[in-house]
Amino acid sequence: MGILDALKAYLTDWKNLLAHGIVGVILLYCLLFAPIAWYWRVILLIIVIAFNIIRMKYFK
Asked: Considering the entire predicted model, what is its pTM?
């Protein structure tokens, strides 16, 4: 159950939701006005997720 608890904490953390919301708005803006390659969007998403995992693990 450790993985499910960690996933629940990750998905309900307000800082995580805020970061993903901001990134989502930026990506939507880029998609509408300055299209970027799909792999850059994936890389950005991975960076945000990694940052959030590090933040949650080390800055409690």
From this structure: 0.49
Rounded Cα–Cα distance for residues 48 and 46 (Å): 5
Q: Distance between CA 27 and CA 34 in Å, rounded?
A: 9
Q: Tell me the C-alpha distance between 36 and 17, whole Å.
A: 23
Residue 41: both structure tokens together: 């969007």
- Residue 41 CA to residue 26 CA, distance in Å, equals 10
| Cα→Cα distances 33→27, 29, 48, Å | 10, 6, 22
pLDDT in tens, 7-59: 788 788 888 888 888 888 887 787 677 777 878 878 877 887 788 788 777 77
DSSP reduced 3-state for 59: coil
